[in-house]
Amino acid sequence: MTKKMEFCMLRAFQQYLVDQFIKLETQRLDFYSLNQDLFRVDALAGILDVLRHGERDASNIGKQSFLPASFVGGPRDMRKRYMDAIVLVQHFGKPDIFLTMTCNPSWPEIEEHLFVTDEVQNRHDLVSRVFRAKVEEMKTDILKRNIFGRVAAFMYTIEFQKRGLPHAHFLIILNNEYKLLTPVAYDKIVCAELPDSDTNDYLYTLVTKHMMHGPYVEIKQYQFARWVSPPEATWRLFGFSISEMSSAVYHLQLHLEGQQFISFKTTQTINAIVFPDTNIVFAPVFKENF
Question: Where would I find the Helitron helicase-like domain in this sequence (predicted)?
Fold first, then answer.
């Protein structure tokens, strides 16, 4: 096999990963698109109004719901994640630490599993697995080994640069007794200067190699399209989570009387929509306390 053929095969593998993810994503989108007539949403008061006027066909009421919150990366999913994060901040206080973890293609766990002819940029399957393992180890350091102190709540998200490697952004909220309240407390975990090359040459080499960047050319125009890179395609194909938070947030829809939104299928009868068998969650609690 010639070098040119080998290069083409490796690049073809990247294209294959992207194509497979796009097929999977398109299949999900097609499902929602082809079933829009089946799923609708409306306020309870609106459904009761049409019921009083004699309407019995559910396909004639409500409006179509497009991408649901279960579609990862959709607007409702992103808004849900944002609101969950805001709830944690409201309950536990503002985050104390913003931590970014970037994948390092020179990690031994990556290099030792490369074949002689392999290059890191062509092995996104390996990179994704190693980075996920590193993220899980970082979570263990933060949540179980308490390297910053005891954690009250945390959240993180995985992002992908257009042509770069995956990276994770953590927001960490510490318990009150471990809050960073003084410059001395911050200096224990944050360093904003280069390490001394004479006393700590190893750390100096790491910082100058991985954390210092030269000037870049700014892109002035963007194509109005979804950009999917091989690293993101591989991560999503493996089914790895793109975000996580703790503690858990329970979603409760607060509304005026009769204004709660109800999702239903056009095949249901309006009576079944308005008078379901299940009870409204927390209704007795609100009746007793409000």
Answer: 6-172
Angle at 242 between CA 236 and CA 245, to 5 degrees: 155
SS3 110: helix
Residue 21 near residue 241, CB atoms below 8 Å: no
Closest by Cα among 151, 177, 126, 111 to 10? 126
Which structural domain range is residue 102 located in? 73-194+225-241
Full-model pTM: 0.72
Q: Which tokens go with 204?
A: 């100096």
Q: Which of 103, 104, 127, 132 is nearest to 114 (CA)?
A: 127
Phi/psi of residue 153, each to 5°?
-160, 155
Which pLDDT band holds residue 2 (cuts at 50, 70, 90)? low
Under DSSP, is residue 90 helix (H, G, I), strand (E, B) or coil?
helix
Q: Is 272 a member of any domain?
A: yes
User: How many beta carbons lie within 10 A of that of residue 27, not counting itself?
Assistant: 9
Q: Which of 2, 4, 8, 28 is nearest to 236 (CA)?
A: 28
Residue 251, class by beta-carbon neighbours within 10 Å (0-12 exposed, 13-18 middle, 19+ buried)? exposed
pLDDT, tens digit (0-9, with 9 covering 90-100), for 134-164: 999 999 999 999 999 999 999 999 988 765 6
Same structural domain, 47 and 165: no
Question: Strand locations in 63-140, DSSP E?
Answer: 63-64, 97-102
Half-sphere exposure of 112 (CA within 13 A, CB side): 4
User: How many other CB atoms are there within 10 angstroms of residue 191's CB atom?
Assistant: 11
